[in-house]
Amino acid sequence: MHEIPVIAPHVVEYRCHRLRCPHCGTTTVATVPVEATTGYGPRVQAVAAMLTGSCRLGKRGVSRLFDDLFGLPLSPAMVCKLQRRTAEALRPIADQALIYTRGHPANVDETGWHEGPTRAWLWVAVTTLVVAFLIRKTRGRSAFDDLRGASSQVLTTDRYPVYAHLKAHKRQVCWAHLRRDFQAMIDRNGPGSQIGTQLLGCADRMFACWYRVRDGTLSRATFRSVYVPALRRQVREWLANGAACACAKTAGTCRELRAVEPSLWTFARVADVDPTNNAAEREVRHAVCWRKTSFGTDSADGSRFVERILTVIATCRRQNRNVLAFLTRAVTAARTGGDAPTLLPTVTAVA
Predict the structure, then answer these.
(1) 49-95 confidence digits (pLDDT tens)
(2) pLDDT digit string (tens) for 277-303?
(3) Which pLDDT belongs to residue 35?
(4) What 3-state DSSP class applies to 284?
(5) pTM here?
(6) String of b and e for 217-253 (b: at least 16 CB within 10 Å)?
(7) Contact between residue 340 and residue 89 where contact means Cβ atoms under 8 Å apart
(8) Looking at residue 29, what DSSP letter applies?
(9) CA–CA distance, 86 with 88 (Å, rounded to integer)
(10) Are 12 and 36 in contact (CB under 8 A)?
(11) Could you tell me which residues come within 8 angstroms of residue 26 by beta carbon, excluding any fewer than 6 positions away?
(12) Considering just the CA atoms, what is the radius of gyration of the chain in Å?
């Protein structure tokens, strides 16, 4: 049988020695240690941040849980204060992770957010081992540039127009989105249904081959040289037919896809590039659920906490690292001036 022991807070009392000089009358008091200035230890701060960022609890929920579970008084206002300090402690760590993602192929996506009364967007870049989040008040090119900088790496995206400036050989258009578009052509039961049926069949054949590449039963070279040419020829043919069909929506979609057709096949030739943007969509799902209960953030400080704590949580999960241990080390380093832990996979991942 497993059981959890009763948890009692460990309280350290600091008594600062005070002396008065008998000659000049000056009173001298010992300095309070840096780690004691907040009234709460690094682990308390890390747990509060994790309960908010990982468990999506509100400020009052965290306050009540600390009281019920730990017998530790922690007001909602103090939760906010600890979050600001955690965000500052995570600043260099998150910045480092963002720079790392710019140097690797990534899945990129964005979703709606709110910062106070203002509309905002949460952006994410997902690589194999590192994830970076940013919140910006625009869904335009400037936010994308903040996320990716001058990176020349291949990006897997949906067909949102902000990605249209990417060079065809540096972009992979998500086939999962395309598959839904093809199914929509079929569901209209109009002149474009046959086009949708044929394109959906091409997509399914592509995925069947790709699963073999992913599982190691088919080499990428063979996939690219034997299977892709025939599939690409068929897709081009049906997109051309669809662009001329009588269904306006199907024709419009086919014309859009013809314009980005080279970007449908980047994954076949570039290692570490997937045909779908599912990795990015999976990473933003947690944030979307958090947004629905919190309604976003109230200020820029809150947004910085959200983007940085999400970066740490998502990256630690990908690297199988303990999130609480990492946060505790980061907070401790910020308080004592020590070396902050890193999310970069080139360094041995010890939480």
Answers:
(1) 999 999 999 999 999 999 998 889 999 999 999 999 999 999 999 99
(2) 999 999 999 999 999 999 999 999 999
(3) 67
(4) helix
(5) 0.88
(6) ebebeebeeebbeebbebbeebbebbbebebeebbeb
(7) yes
(8) E
(9) 5
(10) yes
(11) 20
(12) 26
Give the C-alpha separation, 113 to 303, whole Å.
Answer: 10
Angle at 56 between CA 348 and CA 341, to 5 degrees: 20
| Spatial distance between the Cα atoms of 52 and 41, rounded to a whole number of angstroms | 17
Determine the 3-state secondary structure of 241 from DSSP.
Answer: helix
42 φ, ψ (degrees, to nearest 5): -60, -35
Q: Whole-angstrom Cα distance, residue 203 to residue 197? A: 10
Cα(32)–Cα(348) distance, integer angstroms? 35
Q: Where are the beta strands (DSSP E) in 92-176?
A: 106-115, 118-126, 131-136, 155-157, 171-173
Nearest to 263 by CA among 226, 232, 221: 232
Residue whose pair of structure tokens reads 């919190």 in the numeric block: 294
Task: Name, in order, each residue with C-beta under 8 angstroms of 248's C-beta and a sequence gap of 6 or more.
Answer: none
